[in-house]
Amino acid sequence: MTLEAILVIAMFATFGLILLTGFPVAWALAGTAVIYGIAGHVLVADFGANLWFNWGSSVELFPERIWPLVSSPTLVALPMFIFMGIMLDRSGVAERLMKNMVTLFGVVRGGYAVTVIIIGVLLAATTGIIGASVVLLGMLSLPVMLKTGYNKSLAVGTACATGTLGILIPPSIMLVIMADRLARPETSVGDLFLGAVFPGVLLGGLYISYVLILAWVRPNAAPVPKDVPKVTPRVVANALWAAAPTAGLILAVLGSIFMGVATPTEASGVGAAGAMLLAIANRRMSFEVLRDSLYQTTRTSSFIFAIFLGATAFSVVLRNLGGDQVIEEALLGLPFNNYGILATILFVTFLLGFFLDWVEITLIILPLVAPVVEGMGFNLAWFTIMFAVCLQTSFLTPPVGFALFYIKGVCPPEINTIDIYKGVLPYILLQLTGLAAVFFWPGLVTWLPSVAFN
Amino acid sequence: ANTAQAQDSVRWRMPIAFPSTLPGLASPAPWVAKRLNEISDGSIQIRVSEPGKIVPPFDILDAVSDGKVSAGYTWVGYDQGKVPAIPLFAAVPFGMKPWAFMGWYYFDEGHNLVQEVYANAGYNVHAELCGIIGPETAGWYREPIESLDDYKGLKIRFAGLGGRVLEKLGASVTMMPGGELFQALETGTIDATEFSLPIIDQILGFNKVVKYNLFPGWHQQFTAQYMLINKDDWNALGENQRSQIDTACMAATTYALSESEAKNGKVLMEFQDKGVHTAQIPEPVLKELRATTREVMQEEASKNEDFKRVWESQKEFMKQYKVWGERAYLKPEMMLGGEEANN
Amino acid sequence: MSKDDSNESAQGFHIPEGELDFHHHTELPDTAASLALDRTIGSVGKLISWLWLAVVAVILISVISRYVFGQGSIMLEELTWHIYGIAWPIGLAYTLVTDDHVRVDVLHERMALKTQAWIEVIGLIVLLLPFLGLVLYYSLPYAYDSFIRGETSQAPSGLPYRFLLKSIIPLSMVLLAVAVIARISRCTALLFGFPKPRRQTTSVH
Ligand code: NA
Ligand code: NA
After folding, report:
1. Of B249, B256, B156, which Cα lies nearest the Cα of B200?
2. Helix or strand or coil: residue C144?
3. Ion ligand 2 contact residues with beta carbon within 5 A
4. Do A295 and C84 touch (CB under 8 A)?
5. Closest-CA residue in chain C for A301?
6. Mean pLDDT, chain A, integer
7. Does the pLDDT of residue C4 top 50, yes or no?
8. Lowest-confidence region among A199-213, B225-239, C150-164
9. Inter-residue contact A82 to A301 (CB < 8 Å)
10. Fewest CB atoms less than 10 Å from the CB: which of A31, A128, B330, C190?
């Protein structure tokens, strides 16, 4: 094994061990980066190790790498969506929406979870920032689901997994970067955006089916709220009336994007303003509510940004130690000559997703495998979307599953990390099911762009 | 390699501002890295770091100057906010054709001026022109531009000094990030956008949502990329290594220009097959754009001494170049083979 | 969501009921120093939280002016992320004070309070402080260079004085370091009785 490989494996192992001690995720990442930065420096400077590691191009660059987080027009959406979620929660608007949606589902068990998934799919169409959507869905839905007696894992798994749909369903910064990286007309941003629509909706559908089946098999996991009235036209009308403002808000955010009034980033601000209006209309707005919502927005945004901070330090040190080369060489060592290669690449991507985030994987692997896939005559857009589904799954796979960290940050105390792991497991399997579906029916990806652009 | 050579060999990480997959704009970077490794027999080893892998694109200059990385490859126009005169070396509205710029850079004052401009702004870098490409398109529009009034209230994404020009003409100019452009154009958040060469624009898929691709790219007749090298590292190189770098970069400039000249025509023909109208901005509108550009350039020159000096030098060069340039070349349709192409 | 009423005493500064919704893992005692420092950082964090309203306002003005008055503004677009870029980095320290940085609690919650405190104090000293120190050390020249070079926005009609926003990086590191020192004192108060614990807080759960 090369020195690079040893260092890369050791770096991940160290990070994993620190995580287990319960030290905050963000600072575990940052601290591991510093330790291995120093190690790399000592190895090169004092032991003459044959590494490309360079203190200047790793540790000294921390400020340069933090700056794009500070000056990002796109990430403004993160605190905005979080504020929107907190406001909806604090003002009682969210709970009312959830309750009324459940009334509509009547005696269908699992109604809350289904509602969360539907809201999540809509939300995914407004933002691609996983931190924002996971946190927002968690805040909106966990309290009410737990109060109704939902199984903890089911509740948290649903919110967490649904929150990751945003990176697949357009607008999606991940697909933009993939298009950029591939630099081919057949995988333009437009093609990938449209290609991702059906797979994204399919995953949402799979999630809903799973919840309904589970609730039917194990009624205790997703009980019907006790006070649900019989479904009469009047009840339906009342429910729709009561749910209208919040649904309207979500649709207004979506609509402002699709009508071209606002960019996705601006739409997040529009949503935040809308949530305040709803709270006022609902007579739940007060100075205290506003103040507390703002305070909590800061704390929630900051714990996510802290993870970004740690992760950016971690990755620059990892790359300097030769992380890219190690993974590239491992990948090139695979048997690249039979039809199963596609499955192999996707499986490896899925496995890497346990440890690396999507940016790393996209930067390292996509340009490497694209020519291979193309050379075998496969449709590259189709492959890229499958690749994207794998990366969406990486948010859910421990130990480095960012959606798991985000949801943990807003969980009520009775939910612990193990509950979250248990909760997302079925959804990881559903992701793989969705992946298989796209694998066997490429039309799911290729059909929409072919009709839309002709 | 013998021991003496091995001691002198350098290992540089070279961050780039665009993915190396982008033709002309960034494809010369890996090419130059590979060539340098080969022609120096391993005494110059360069590893290209894709955008953001090590250094975020907008900080390449600082990172090189501070010696955090030894080299970087970027479109230096990004540093307009730090070095006001630098756009003149990166892309100039109503500026020179690529080969005229190369003439000014290599045989007139360009190469020396860029070193001075960086030094005066407090940067410790050596710059080598290391890639140049032809004109960008004037952008993608829902409707063609027929008069100056069409710019009034037009919601357009337009970077650089050209953006200032359009702002003066009443356009609503934004700088939204590249990743939001497709969606914004599709939903009408913006009416128009410019980005780069046709071959690069097609990757963003603009042709799929709006049908007017306007020319000429008045705002960016040439687009130049540079290899920036930390000055201490540059000075520490051996004479032969320095020649290897400047030779490789000169070759990369040819490489980039050839690639952009070779590939864009085909893409434009494909656009036309897909119903894209490649329209020209009318001459009178262009003249107005030029008049406004002149104002903007004068404002910049009055704010910054180096800007003024470089701008004067370029204007001086253009005076003599015009005599040659307007007489010497055939229009492409006059060339054999050119006349068969339908426009 | 559950209410964690212990926070008022745990944090040492007034937190109204319902404000803190998060689970707090490590119930450390306060010290005189930590009370004062935490209170200060808490006030700063709360103050900057109001900036989110400003972000909402600027976005609305920007959208309205583009759609109603047909006039977009690069300056407003940049103002949005300038305000945002002040708020979250400052919030990092506030979030540390309220102990809202996410942990993996698989083993952590089964540990004795003293073990947790040991992990916390070692982690803060070995992992976090060196990181803060390095970022601070390298971000000071980063911001200072921006100042002496008079860096402005790269957009021709964008905002000037970029060094102000760049200074947020070292500033946030200093605030974080202060929060870390306060927290270390709370750990050592529990482990060694030094500095003198002010109150032993108890979990209400
Ligand atoms: Na999305
Ligand atoms: Na993962």
Report:
1. B256
2. helix
3. A 353-354, 394, 397, 400-401
4. no
5. C88
6. 87
7. no
8. C150-164
9. yes
10. B330
Above 80 in pLDDT, residue C20? no
- Give the side-chain half-sphere CA count within 13 A for C53: 13
Q: Which residues neighbour B224 within 8 Å (Cβ) at sequence distance 6 or greater?
A: B75, B76, B89, B90, B91, B101, B105, B129, B131, B132
Q: Is B188 left (phi over 0), alpha (psi -120 to 50) or beta?
A: left
Domain range enclosing A274: 3-453
Q: Is C137 on the interface with A (CB under 8 A)?
A: no
DSSP per position, C57-90:
HHHHHHHHHHHTS----HHHHHHHHHHHHHHHHH
Give the span between the Cα atoms of A101 and A82, in whole angstroms.
Answer: 22
Cα–Cα distance between C142 and A64 in angstroms, integer? 8
The two structure tokens encoding residue C119:
């992990």
Confidence of residue B239 (pLDDT cuts 50, 70, 90): very high
* DSSP category for residue A442: T
- Output the pLDDT for position A1: 83
How much is the pLDDT for C137? 98
Q: Residue A163's CB: how many other CB atoms inside 10 A?
A: 28
pLDDT digits (tens, 9 = 90+) for A354-377: 888 787 788 778 877 887 788 778
Of C91, C100, C12, C13, residue with least CA distance to C47: C91
* Domain locations in chain C as residue ranges: 32-192
State whether A416 and C105 contact (CB < 8 Å): yes
Q: Which two tokens stand for residue C158?
A: 């964008």
Smallest CA–CA distance from B299 into chain C, residue: C156
Mutation for B interface: C63, C138, C149, most B CBs within 10 A: C149
Residue A23 makes CB contacts below 8 A (sequence gap 6+) with A31, C103, C119, C120, C123, C127
Per-residue pLDDT of C27-61, as tens digits, reads 788 999 999 999 999 999 999 999 999 999 999 99
Q: Based on the structure, what is the number of domains in chain A? A: 1
pLDDT at C22 over 50: no
Nearest CB partner across the interface for B59, out of A67, A183, A316: A67
Cβ-based contacts of C169 with chain A (< 8 Å): 63, 66-67, 70
Which one of A116-120, A142-146, A336-340, B292-296 scores highest in mean pLDDT? B292-296
Name residues whose C-beta falls within 8 Å of residue B210's C-beta, 6 or more positions apart in sequence: B140, B141, B142, B185, B192
- What is the pLDDT at residue C25? 52
| Whole-complex ipTM | 0.88
Among A28-37, A71-80, A304-313, B299-308, the minimum mean pLDDT is found in A71-80
Tally of CB atoms within 10 A around C185: 23
Residue B247: what pLDDT?
Answer: 97
Q: Give, in order, the Cα–Cα distances in Å from A50 to each of A12, A46, A320, A333.
A: 21, 11, 12, 22
On average, the pLDDT of chain B sits at 90
DSSP-based three-state secondary structure for B129: strand
Confidence (pLDDT) at C199: 63
Decide: residue B170, CB within 10 A, 0-12 exposed, 13-18 middle, 19+ buried. Answer: middle
Q: Which of residues 39-98 of C touch A (CB under 8 A)?
A: 45-46, 48-50, 52-53, 55-56, 58-60, 62-63, 67, 77, 80-81, 84-85, 87-89, 91-92, 94-95, 98
